[in-house]
């Protein structure tokens, strides 16, 4: 189990000596040591017993602290074939004992550590080095290795954190879509950011959203320059102002919206005239860029109300007519309660969590896994 940021729990390897009857110890003195070594092989960080016993802690977003998600270091000096102590720049984020590391192609386990060394190293070990094969993403990779020498400043990979990294990536994919393959800055409190990600997505395109993004990715505060403020404008002139939105068609032909007015289904007071429509193709899907005519100046805007990013997700389980709970990738963008569409169903729900809708009713047709689940808040025009 990961030590930093996680509660320490009693392991079987720590108490097995006191659990065996005396006659077994007398007849087979090495039984306790045999069982201890067996449980060490199962209870190491990322091992089968560790995942089962501590899954509740892996699920907590508060546990994703900088010192927990560290997955690499570097050797601070050359490593010889028979070295049992390996010096590194830092062991922060690595298990304090019985961890697995990988230097170049060699897998190494160790029995102890300090802040800058791994001690009691067993060289040329074997273990899981990846949870996905290149051509078969469902199969993990188990590798063997042999002892070899390594240069100073060689990368040291923390194999004990592979499961946590996979789970971390899934959390980012579900709650911070678009950022799952990007590395966050080292000092970021990832748990807090993910829990408050909704605020970031709702402020998309604003100066504050750029500040948050650069702080999360690079630890820097950017200076955003609005070039429009530096344009020379004759005081008697007026300028056509337009906002741009990107939309996906539910029905009809969006190209026919040019020259028409679009209206929000849940608020008839939110309207905007469309001056132009362009087609955008991305990864085999078709989207539409709508240019909304705002007006000639701020005094008499032609766009009224608010235009939000509407909720859209996919269900990760089949939806049956008897279900009252629907599990999806993410509920970001959906209201706390309301109506959603899935297949041909118009479903009402009473509350939600980060990835589930509760109190669902009016499910009349079966919906297969990975179908689109969308909010009833859409925009239409004629």
What percent of residues are in strands? Answer: 25-35%
Q: Helical proportion?
A: 10-25%
Total number of β-strand segments?
21
Compute the separation of the termini in Å: 59 Å
Q: How would you characterize the largest beta sheet?
A: 5 strands, antiparallel
Whole-number total of structural domains: 4
Query: Nearest-angstrom radius of gyration?
Result: 28 Å
* Major sheet strand order: 10-13-12-11-21
How would you characterize the overall build of this protein?
By secondary structure, this protein is of the alpha+beta class. The chain has 4 domains: 1-173, no CATH class; 176-218, no CATH class; 232-295, no CATH class; 312-377. It has 9 helices and 21 strands. Strands 10-13-12-11-21 form a 5-stranded antiparallel β-sheet, with no helix packed on it. The longest helix has 14 residues, at 162-175. The radius of gyration is 28 Å and the shape is elongated. Residues 1-5 have low confidence and may be disordered.
A few lines on this structure:
The chain is α+β, with helices and mostly antiparallel strands and 382 residues long.
Descriptive key words:
single chain, 382 residues, alpha+beta, 4 domains, 5-stranded antiparallel beta sheet, 9 helices, 21% helix
Layout of SSEs?
Layout: H1 12-19, H2 22-27, H3 31-43, H4 48-58, H5 66-69, E1 72-74, E2 86-87, E3 99-103, E4 106-110, E5 112-113, E6 117-119, E7 126-130, E8 141-144, E9 155-158, H6 162-175, H7 190-195, H8 197-202, H9 207-218, E10 241-247, E11 261-264, E12 267-282, E13 285-295, E14 312-314, E15 326-327, E16 338-342, E17 345-349, E18 351-352, E19 356-358, E20 372-375, E21 379-380
Antiparallel strand pairs: 1-9, 2-6, 3-4, 3-9, 5-6, 7-8, 10-13, 11-12, 11-21, 12-13, 14-20, 15-19, 16-17, 16-20, 18-19
Helix pairs in contact: 1-3
